[in-house]
Please model this.
Amino acid sequence: MARILAEEGFDVVAQARNSVELVGLVRRDPPDVVITDLRMPPGFADEGIEAAAEIRSFAPQVGLMLLSQYVEVHHALRLMEEFDGAVGYLLKDRVSDLGAFAIDVRRVAGGEVVTDAELVSRLVGRRRERDPLAELTHREREVLSLMAQGLTNAALSEELVLSPKTIEGYVRSVFTKLGLEQSEREHRQVQAVLQFLRWQ
Model:
């Protein structure tokens, strides 16, 4: 991982063998981004996410990118519910696309939320009663699905081959139908993504 990051132009300032060491290193010299496995020694349970939560408590400016071998929906939801931006959740096999991985790390460093596309696709088929997304059109659901992967409005415009103004209209409609008021402007995209992940 350190070699991959160095090849992509990152400065790797430290490496940790376990969650306790990771927290200590960040406390001494906070980096722009922490990249960690969700499961770490010694127990290989959820040490990575617990370390991330501790880091966020004393260094809220540090971006947190968590990697996992498998899609674990409850962990992904926890990340987005408890961590206000600058957080990512990716499957380890995504690291093989070095360019895309580097972009995702930089997005997390910039304060964005990055969600693995596999997680989103796993949730697409799920159905629950009283679905708050029921009022969304097919295109609005498509826009929200891509938002859940972390795409910006500009990226949505390129992906869907639609004008920026049209994308803005769809995003505004999604916010309205989900009851996300203008006063929540700074967090509406995160809140919309959370509703998508909970109810898809």
In short: The chain has a mean pLDDT of 84. The first strand starts at residue 33 and ends at 37.
